[in-house]
Amino acid sequence: MEDSAIAKAIELGDEATVLEMLNAVEAAEPPDAPGRLVGTDGKTLFHAAAQHMPGNAEVLKALVAKGVDPAARDHQGESGMDVLLASCSEGGAERVAEVVLRPMLEQGDLDQLDRLAMTGWMLDQCSPSDEQLEEKMASVPEAAKMKLAELIDLQGKQAALSQCIREGSRPIQAEQLQELGALASSHTGDGLTLLHHAVLYENAEAVDILLATVADSVNVLDFMKRSALHYAALCPPGSEIYQTLKNAGADDSLLDVLGNTPLDYAAEPEKISLDDIRARSERLMEVKDKALPTMEAANLIEKGEGQTAEETEEKQADTFETPQQEQELQKLQPTVVEAKGPEKIKPVEMYVSQRNIRREPPVPPPSTVDGRYIAQHLGEALTKALAEIAEVRPWDPIEYLARWLHKYRRDEAFSRKSKEEAEEEEEEEEEEEEDKEENEREEEEEKEEVEEEKEEEEEVDEMMMTTKIRQEELLKTIRDEEARLMREQELKFKRMEELRRYQEEEAEKKRIEEEERKKREQEELLRSAKESALAQKPALPTVSEEGEEGAHEDEDDDGEEDDDPTVKDRDKVGQTELHKLAAQPGMDFTALMQLGYSIADRDLNGKTARDIAHNTGQKETVEAIGIPYIV
């Protein structure tokens, strides 16, 4: 808890931060909710606020509203309300009533009132007196008033039983425990239960009666999370209390805040001392035990208007059950006087446990320099401190005085600081006025500068917009030009493709025409050869004298003779149609030979048609001519 932000803010007294953090807490209570923050010493946020901010009721109320238990005790047995009472030099009881008790009563929250009583907090410490009852409890429902009175009465009886158990002065009765109801197993003023007291003071008889009457208190834990069995483990050897509690169902596996079980303390009893536990219990119970008869006596005396002193004494004597209470009553007897007329009888105020009543005894003025010095610097503080000590009658007056003076000094420093802060605030207000005027001037100047900057920005924006438009137009022009060039390239490519396709078509057309021409020529050649063959006789002419003479006459001028008498079927080199066709592929030589051409005919070079086909690479023609032809 000590490292949490809200704990640090409380320690610094930062009200605004604390309230802001508390207001931010959701109703669902997360794991780090204020009510769940507990320090290593058992102190809660209410302890811290009661110590550092006791005068701030708003913060204290906000802590209670957010689930912080004001009655939770630290490891010393002190609750947050105990710390608040000790921290307030004046009006501590009123502050506790304002923060804790009065909201419960005004809301009529009787269950919460029961829970507060069961924590051991003595409700009569902050309940209003009869003089204040009508004023302070005007808005409290009648049922809440009756419940408060009932709980105060039961707590008084519980405290009386606790004292009987601790002192062993008289045995307790089961009827008395039954009358207490739930308070019989709840905590008393020191944070322990009646069963804890019976074990601590080794009152075996009280242990038996408590276990027989309120058996559910056997495992109730104190503020150190110890059950009665933890303390029974520390009893001297030979004590039967430990076994009695075990037989009644006490759990020996429960861990206290130090992580020890009853078995651990039985094995190592030197870990804690029963004497220390008893001393702390006595310290916490002493003021509450003394306050009980004093307050009841005061109330009885205030209610005894019109009665004699003897009647009042008789009623007071019937009120108390122990000799100690009767002794306390005897202290009050000299202060009671008979009523005279309508005047109301009052006890001596310094013995009445009403923190709201103050009376300063007359003090003679100092006559020496030292006396005046002490009176000036210490008189008021010491007078108030001693008056409160006489009224409260604490267990340790020296410690109480030291704490009171420390608190007084802190309050005085706080008042001085507040005054200085007020002066500083005035100066700050003046400075703020000046700063405000200066700020207004600066704001005007800044406004003008902003307007100028705005105009400049608008001009720049306009220029940028114009530039942007021009850039977009230029970009559009570039893109249009690129698109035009792209279209031209596509058109050019298309034309080239068409030209190439046209050239290919023309070439193909020429090739086809050439093939057709060659085919026609071949067909014409075949036709001519066929016609020539049909026009001539197939047999060779016979040699006659006339023929020989004609042959001699037909010799050329160079003396050479023609190879074949059928000169008309040969060309100048002596080749027939068969020779010419032998150089062309796919020719039908069978038809030519049927027309009278001979494969044995030779040209002037002495080559046959087969030789010409062989020289031109016409293998099919060579093979066709090589087959003998039979007529």
Automatic annotation (TrEMBL):
Keywords: ANK repeat, Repeat. CDD domains: DD_DYDC-like. It holds the Pfam family Ank. Residues 301-333, 414-472, 495-579 are annotated as: Disordered. Residues 495-530, 565-579 have a biased composition (Basic and acidic residues). The keyword Zinc does not apply. Residues 421-462, 545-564 have a biased composition (Acidic residues). InterPro entries: Ankyrin_rpt, Ankyrin_rpt-contain_sf, Dpy-30_motif, DYDC-like_DD, NF-kappa-B_inhibitor. Residues 322-333 have a biased composition (Low complexity). ANK repeats lie at residues 41-75. The keyword Protein biosynthesis does not apply. This is Dpy30 domain-containing protein 1. It comes from Plakobranchus ocellatus.
